[in-house]
Amino acid sequence: MQKYLTIYHELVKKIQSNQLPESTKLPSENELTEIYSTSRETIRKALNQLAQDGYIQKIRGKGSVVIDTNKFDFPVSGIVSFKELATNLQLPANTIVNELAIVEADQELQSKLNINLRDSVWKVVRARKISGEKVILDKDYFNKDYVPELTREICEDSIYDYLENQLELKISFARKEIVVEEPSEEDRALLDLEGYSNVVVIKSMVYLEDTSLFQYTESRHRPDKFRFVDFARRVK
């Protein structure tokens, strides 16, 4: 691993563990070069990465200051599995499979997946734990024509890893809708909501490379833990 990434990860751990709480001013670049016995350029790379990932704010004349890190950036525009997200954010995370079953499509699933009434659909309900708290409830529905088999072990690890590397499906794009809803009884039973009166729900219809619609998902998030981010470019 490159030296600047080692420094970056060490500082991230200190921020996440509150050794460097919000509003703390980091040592200067010169001081950090001495602490880590490295070049100023390496320190600058590490600090730039921290700023880019939302851990610090670099203020001219004042140095680098730790900012609010209680919320995790959740990329809206991309198609990212929970396992990939947790790995990218360097977070302790795991998945609890609450339900894995084959169900018959009702009228709502018929509409969401563009299938026939009573077609077979995989239903997967999973609670996602981050740092010991259940903060996401993922409800996934897969057209069984494209996903003939699922196991609890696959669902606990990564369904997308299985789909892409075992079934060799080419996942391509998704249509997404973000809404704020009152928690359902299921949300309250399976998430650590701690009195929160809303959940942020990302509803996605996911397509393969050949434009086949194969998945409908509701990803239900505790509102205090995430920033929903996107990249936008002005087009004239």
From TrEMBL:
Residue intervals of the HTH gntR-type domain: 1-69
Entry-linked SUPFAM superfamilies: Chorismate lyase-like, Winged helix' DNA-binding domain
Keywords, in A-Z order: DNA-binding, Transcription, Transcription regulation
InterPro entries: Bact_HTH_transcr_reg, Chorismate_lyase_/UTRA_dom_sf, TreR, Tscrpt_reg_HTH_GntR, UTRA, WH-like_DNA-bd_sf, WH_DNA-bd_sf
Signal peptide: none
Pfam family, one: GntR
Identification of the protein by name: Trehalose operon repressor
